[in-house]
Write a structure and sequence with these properties.
The chain is an alpha+beta fold and 295 residues long. It folds into two domains: 157 residues, Gcn5-related N-acetyltransferase (GNAT) (Aminopeptidase, 3-Layer(aba) Sandwich); 125 residues, Glutaredoxin, CATH 3.40.30. The chain is built from seven helices and eleven strands. The chain has a seven-stranded mixed sheet. A four-stranded mixed sheet has the order 9-8-10-11, covered by helices on one side. Strand 2 and strand 3 form a beta hairpin. Helix 5 crosses helix 7. The longest helix has 17 residues. It is globular. The relative contact order is 0.13.
């Protein structure tokens, strides 16, 4: 039997760590930061639905009013599912969590439930799963279009015929050089565990280079910042995006800074740089959005 409940104090560690309990101090530290944010957003309508299967936690779902969701999209009067995680598929847990989100939307008088699904053969938020549960495509978010192999679509399930169609993020990134420095523009949010951990790593590595590096942070928790730049997650070094999908490794960030200090010199035939680091090996991108949750 599946039980769905709002996150309580006993669920917080499970949710805060993204189910990665007792794995590392880094994840636990991130969990503490995220839980402070999650608790603070409760009064704005954020709800975390936790699934219990056979007396064990089996997954969770975030439901966030679109006006406050740091992952996007943009719009009004909808409830966003930015992330749904199920530990073991095939038991109906994902469907039960979606049903709970729909009930929450009606409880909050929201006119639609919105999510971002992916059309690829991978476990992360597959569009087909949501479509099976009554969602339909309303727009392909502009922020994700550069990642053609992980093509994302904006999906929704309408609760009210007067629902406003949400709009996907469209990057408005503009690089502003600073003479004599490597410029790092860091876009991140507390909501996303991957992004929060990655941001802390970038800060620590940037500090190693002292005054040679200028780090500017853009936190999508601030709705004005997200609306202005429309990037929920991204690392740009001297205007070029770097990314690994998972949390940026410190060694990779460090290597990117070193290469920037050397003037981006690279032998394109033997380049082992991350995506979009080398101007000869990959095109400039302004997307920067990944996560590690699944349905």
């Amino acid at each position: 039997m599946i039980e769905i409940r709002n996150m309580d104090a006993t669920d917080e560690y499970f949710v805060g760590t993204g189910t990665h309990t007792d794995e590392s101090d880094e994840i636990d530290s991130c969990a503490r930061r995220r839980l402070v944010w999650l608790r603070g957003m409760h009064e704005k309508g954020l709800r975390v639905k936790v699934a219990i299967l056979d007396d064990e936690r089996a997954g969770f779902l975030y439901a966030i009013p679109i006006e406050f969701c740091p992952w996007g999209p943009l719009g009004h009067d909808s409830l966003v599912i930015p992330c749904l995680y199920v530990l073991n598929n095939g038991h109906g847990v994902g469907k039960a969590l979606i049903t709970a989100a729909e009930e929450e939307a009606r409880r909050q008088s929201r006119k639609a439930v919105v999510t971002i699904g992916y059309r690829h053969d991978f476990w992360f938020m597959p569009a087909s799963f949501f479509e099976t549960n009554g969602f339909s495509e309303c727009e392909q978010p502009g922020q994700y279009r550069s990642h053609t192999r992980d093509r994302a679509v904006l999906l929704w399930k309408v609760c009210d015929e007067h629902a406003e169609v949400p709009v996907g993020l469209r990057s408005n990134y503009k690089f502003r050089p600073i003479a004599g420095k490597v410029v790092i523009d860091l876009f991140w949010s507390t909501f996303c565990q991957t992004s929060d951990i990655e941001a802390q790593r970038v800060r620590e590595v940037a500090a190693e280079f002292g005054d040679s590096v200028a780090l500017t942070e853009y936190c999508a928790d601030d709705r004005a910042i997200l609306s202005c730049h429309q990037i929920s997650r991204g690392i740009f070094i001297n205007g070029r995006e770097i990314g690994w999908g998972y949390e940026a490794p410190k060694d990779g960030v460090r290597e990117a800074i070193v290469q920037a200090l050397r003037g981006w010199e690279c032998d394109s035939k033997s380049c082992s740089s991350p995506t979009s680091l080398c101007p000869e090996c990959a095109p400039t991108s302004a997307s920067g959005s990944w996560t590690h949750f699944r349905v």
